[in-house]
Design brief:
This protein is mainly β and 135 residues long. The chain has one domain. Helix content is 10%, strand content 46%. The protein is built from 1 helix and 9 strands, in the order αβββββββββ. It is globular and about 35 Å long.
């Protein structure tokens, strides 16, 4: 019986992952703007304490606290328009002790919705972001 429970738990864990990339489908349960690195959430948007912006000409999304002590920036090679699309992006984010940057990170658009929210996933860097393409 114990062996069956272990196998069942393993199967459920595998089933929760996006088959092509390993993206955890629980991350697309809601459209909250956020960034996770190596499965650890480094930023979550709170409309009472944060701001977001999108620069159409630069293809750049920013979200941060009102005083910008915590933020993340995604500057993309293309505007996300559909699931399955691939693009590259320069990303920058803060932690409690540092400012981190990565260039030319490959992303897949995992999901888009009618509110212009885009769920992006980089299997290579284990980074997921949810951004909003503001009009």
């Amino acid at each position: 019986m114990k062996r069956i429970l272990i196998l069942l738990a393993a199967a459920l864990t595998i089933a929760a992952c996006h088959p092509e990339t390993g993206f955890d489908k629980t991350q697309i349960a809601d459209a909250t703007v956020r960034m996770s690195v190596k499965k650890s959430e480094v930023f979550r948007y709170d409309e009472l304490k944060c701001q977001m912006s999108y620069n159409k000409s630069l293809k750049q999304f920013r979200a941060g606290t009102d005083n910008m002590s915590d933020y993340f920036v995604v500057k993309m090679s293309a505007v996300p328009t559909r699931s399955g699309q691939t693009l590259s992006a320069d990303v920058e984010w803060t932690t409690s002790t540092s400012i981190n940057t990565l260039s030319s990170v490959p992303f897949e658009v995992v999901q888009m919705d009618s509110d212009n929210n885009a769920w992006l996933w980089s299997a290579r860097q284990d980074i997921s972001v949810v951004i909003r393409i503001l009009q």
